[in-house]
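<context>
A single protein, sequence plus fold
<sample>
Here is the protein in question:
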Amino acid sequence: MDTADQDISLLRQMRDGDVAAFQRLYQRHQGSIYRYALMRCGRPAMAADVVQDVFMGFLNKAYRYDAGLGSLQNFLFGVARNLLLKQDKHERRHQSLPGNNDEDGEEVLMSDVAEPSDIVFTQQMTEHVRQAVAVLRPHYRDVVILYELQELSYAEIAVICDIDIGTVRSRLSRARAAILQYSERLGWRPDAEAKTGTAK
């Protein structure tokens, strides 16, 4: 039985009143939802609150999952993302890297010169990269975290973020270029780290 089938089986048991089934679903998914929320907001307490809100809303049927629309994990990522977007609006506190304007008229997260940035993500997730991800605008941060860290497909990210695949690709490309630019600006050269194994 694959992961999706196991989730469906546990969901049926949970809906039949099996508390242990809910606990198993929580144990299966809370770690990835917490990591996403933590990278997204940068605050452990808020990330924990998001996880709690996601699963309590799920348990109380405030958030209704339809297995025909995708996996449970992706549904939970989508709920977490919506909660974090609400928090963003409440705080009105957005930092960004300098750049030109994107399709929405706000600062974009890429340099004018396209540079290969795969090496940033083939190394261990360094503190420099964490810092760079933290200053991305939220919708860029979403695609980076979901693609690079959660290893979701473009199609899955498009569903979670309610955007088309082309937008996923564009945001990911811009975000990756910005992370590389930001890391270099801090004095970290990924090519040097790749050769020496140490950050500069």
Residues 93-101, 108-124, 191-200 have pLDDT under 50 and may be disordered.
